[in-house]
Automatic annotation (TrEMBL):
This enzyme's EC code(s): 1.-.-.-
Species for this entry: Polymorphospora lycopeni
Superkingdom of the source species: Bacteria
CDD domains attached to this UniProt entry: SDR_c
One MF annotation (Gene Ontology) recorded for this entry: oxidoreductase activity
Name of the protein in its database record: SDR family oxidoreductase
InterPro entries: NAD(P)-bd_dom_sf (IPR036291), SDR_fam (IPR002347)
Gene3D superfamilies hit by this protein: NAD(P)-binding Rossmann-like Domain (3.40.50.720)
Keyword Oxidoreductase: yes
Amino acid sequence: MNFDGLRVAVTGAARDTGRLLAEAFADRGAYVCLSARNLAVAEQAASVINQRGPGRADAFRCDLAEPDSVRAFAAAVADRTERIDVLINNGAVYIEGDDLTHAPDDKIENVMAVGGTGTLLLTKHLLPLLRASARPDIVNMISACGETGHRRSGAHPAFYAAKHAHAGLAEILSHRLRPEGIRVISLFPPDFVQDGPRQASGDLTARSVVDCVLFAIGQPRDCFIREFHFEQVRPSRG
Ligand SMILES: NC(=O)c1ccc[n+]([C@@H]2O[C@H](COP(=O)([O-])OP(=O)(O)OC[C@H]3O[C@@H](n4cnc5c(N)ncnc54)[C@H](OP(=O)(O)O)[C@@H]3O)[C@@H](O)[C@H]2O)c1
């Protein structure tokens, strides 16, 4: 797949899946606006991409928990490019725990601020740049925890709530932006591993999740893939 000239913005892109996504697009020729909470780590990840090519990356600070940082990121991207073709809403905070009372309030606020408000504000502030693209896509890295009726994860209720907020945003935007030709592509993976054998008996890997994104973005413009859902490995009976 060749994404030469594609302009992509990614949140939480200095490590793990966000970084894999940034690298996968740059490996195929794209220009990446690579953002992270910490500018220094974003710069490091961008520099690896720029040394390798063929695509290139600029590093930006974007703390999704801080609305001012989100707006500053969108403004800085607008200073560099007149359009964005793909926005990837990847950054999120995970917390574990069955019991609602077992996480401090400030942690819960942070989970909701990043996955809920921050993601929504960034999408809002980058929408003008997406509207300036001839092939605009918004990719949402959600989670099976954002599916209605999903109860299998040991994630804290705040994570479920944040992912449902993200899923709700994606659902209505997909419908409302369809007439403009803006595709809203959402992924609802179960727990996945960054690395591992890509076999039926193993866990889903980040590489396979990234390949789903590349596939959806690579489709012709009549093809609006709205959601990816995944079957989990069934726990073996002892
Ligand atoms: N891994 C899984 O099992 C799984 C399953 C389903 C869905 N997902 C979703 O898929 C996406 C990628 O997963 P992952 O495993 O790569 O997640 P991860 O390892 O937990 O990484 C999360 C990313 O979000 C960033 N982030 C955290 N707080 C932020 C903030 N305030 N502002 C901006 N960025 C922030 C992190 O940056 P820092 O380096 O600054 O912390 C990191 O880059 C996430 O949305 C995740 O919820 C993951």
